[in-house]
Structures are given as structure tokens and as C-alpha cells.
Amino acid sequence: MNTGYLDMELLRFTTAGSVDDGKSTLIGRLLYDSKSIFEDQMEAVTAASNRLGNIEVNLALLTDGLRAEREQGITIDVAYRYFATPKRKFIIADTPGHIEYTRNMVTGASTADAAIILIDARNGIIEQTLRHSYIASLLRIPHIIVAVNKMDLVDFSEEVFNKIKEEYLAIVEKLDIKNVYFFPISAKDGDNVVEQSKRTSWYKGTPLLKLLEELPVRLDESKLAARFPVQYVIRPYNDDFHDYRGYAGRIAGGSFKVGDRITVLSSGTTSTIFAINEGERELEEAFAPQSVTIRLSDNVDVSRGDMIVKEKAPTKVGSNISLMICWLNHSPLRIGGKYIIRHTTDEVRGVVKDVRFKVNINSLEEVYGESIVVGMNDIAHITLKTSRPLKYDSYAENRTTGSLVIIDEYTFETVGAGMIVPDLEDQTFAI
Hints:
By secondary structure, this protein is of the alpha+beta class. Helices cover 18% and strands 35% of the residues. The protein has helices spanning 4-7, 23-33, 39-51, 67-72, 102-109, 127-138, 158-175, 208-214; strands at 10-16, 79-84, 89-94, 114-120, 143-149, 179-184, 227-229, 232-234, 246-250, 255-257, 261-265, 269-278, 281-283, 285-287, 291-296, 307-310, 316-327, 338-343, 346-360, 365-367, 379-392, 403-408, 414-420, 427-429. The two termini are 48 Å apart.
């Protein structure tokens, strides 16, 4: 059997921009020009375009999967698409452009290796450009791709492109974005998307797809500090596995191998890894992000929500958590309010202690004050006090152990997404 496709490297990327900037059309163009759609899909899109009265085939319909979205002519949720070229596999998250759906960008971008931010060449940089760029930097997406779209509507003007590029580079300095790339494109016509355009002779770079095929993916999770949040304790209680006790979960960073000395947090109990199982297979070593069962040499007390780490790779343990949040709910954040906090496999109660500042998206400035209201789509720096200590890293160190979600304890709605940032208050280090 040919396993070449399975062995190919995977790149996750997200698209973001204002309404009608052409996000879905760009993805449709990538799928169409890279021959990643089936004939029946193309026939369905052609028929849908005719029903909607489009003169040309509307490639945006390749990603707008819901009938309601098609009827409104907008994307109202995160649409995921999968495609591959001979060089790489891709997962695309097409996120909404409306300001009220900024929360969906957090969902789509949270695991992305790259973000494509579309800018309408006619309108230039707008508030949504700043908002999406800030979120991309907050989520520490390694590569930001600025696609200046609809260049056909400004006669492929080099001057227009360079002006937008210059203005965006000023934003890059404020946000400390490391890797940024600029493309003049026409998603509708395909200029500089998959093939080099003859209408931008002044542009000496590569087409967009070529960059996507060559971008280095994010830091290998297996090279991070070893982290294993315990999801489930396996005790079969049968004659075949009379003494079996295993701890199941997904490795959130680094690697574990048989014989490693480990520490169980928060108890601080130490032991040695006796065996690692992946289904019925026994492994000598397992790496992030594998889902495995770890068995220990000693009969120690381990429960769901505990974390197994290597003795020489301690994590932080604390109840006062400092984090940047994107608020996702119509009801504003309540200072002193009690919420459910879900972090890796752990669930605790938490109280919002204070709001340190809120980000003004228009100016990218930090706004301080005693009467700050954090509403839906707002980004703020807050502190939480949890009912018992969390085992965590900063988000910059580990996206999994450095993130959490905030849930309303009455409605059980997810109301906030948080990225843990360094803070010296009430931190102890596992030893």
C-alpha cells in the first residue's frame, strides 16, 4: 500500500478578513486550481451559482457548506476544508469576517501554523485587519500572510500594494510579529494564488500556494517539556487484567519512555514508567500528540485532571492565574463572578479577581481603569483565583497546557478563551 499521502507533513492555516474581502473565494481558488475538488462537487457549485444568479462560477460556495450561509451570501461559522498537493497536506479554517463573529476566529486560529489575513485593495487596512492581526499575534501563530486581494479592481497597482504593505509593517512592529509575507492577488481570477500572474510583472515573489507548501510548521510538540494530562484511569477488573492500572490521555508535550522517572501533579508523588500502551500495542516511547495509556511501577494515587511530568521538566502549579482572554459571550465578564474553568483534562471553579486592562483594537493600546467592561469580542488581561491549583505552562511555552476555557456555571455556555501569561504571584514550581 502507498503510504506517501499519510506520511506527508500537515500544515494548518486559517483565513481572516472583513466581510466580502474574499476569504471563501480564495480557498475555493486554492482548491480548484490545485485540483483538490471532485467533479460532482464542481457540478454542485456550478448549479448553486446558477440558482443564485451568478454570471460566473462562485468558488466561495466550495467552503460555504450551509444553505443558510449561501442564501445570505456570507460565512457565519468556521468552515474547515482539507486538501493536499504532491508536497503537503492542508487543513484550512475559513473564519467569519463580521466583527460579532471575532470569537470564531479564536476557534479557527487556535491550532494554526499560519494565518492568511485578507485586505481589500480598495479599502486598505481597517479595524478588522487590526483585530485579526492582534488575535493572530496573541495566539502566537508563527507565520502571518497578508493577501492584498481584489488587485484587479485597482488595475494591479504596485503603488496601492506598497502603501498597504508599508502601513501593515507599522502594525507588525507594534505586535512583535516575527514572520510576515505579502502577496498581491486576485482570488476571483487566480492571480498569484497557485500560478504566477502576468498582470503583476512588478511582483517578484512566489505564488501563495508555493509559500504554503514550503513554510516550516510550528515547533514540534515532541520537543516541548514532557506533559501528560490524565484523562481516565483504566481498571478492567477482570481475570485477564487482574492487576492492570493504567492512566489514559493525550501527550500534551514532549515524550515519555519506559523507565522514565516521573512526578504526578499536584500531589508531587514520584514513580517510574513501567509500560506504555497504544491500544493493544506496547511502546518503548511515545511522543506528543499521541493518545496512550501510561502504567507506573508504583500503586500511586492518580486521578483525572492530574498531570504526569518528567522529574526534570517541572510545570508551574498555582491558584492565581494571569491570562489574556477573548470574551465570547453577549453577557459581559463579571468581576467577582464565579465560573467553571476547564484546563487540559482538569475542571475547577474560579473567581475573576480583576481586569488589569482591555485592548483598544483601533489603536492597539492598553486601556486601564476601574470601570472597564469586558463584552463580547473584547480582549483583556485578567486574573483568576481557582478553587485548587492548576498545573500549567505559559501559552508561549505550550499551547495546550497554557490555554483554558471559561464556562458560565449556570448556563454552561463557553464564555471566554484564555491564554496564560507569566505572572509571579502565587506561583510554585513542581520539584
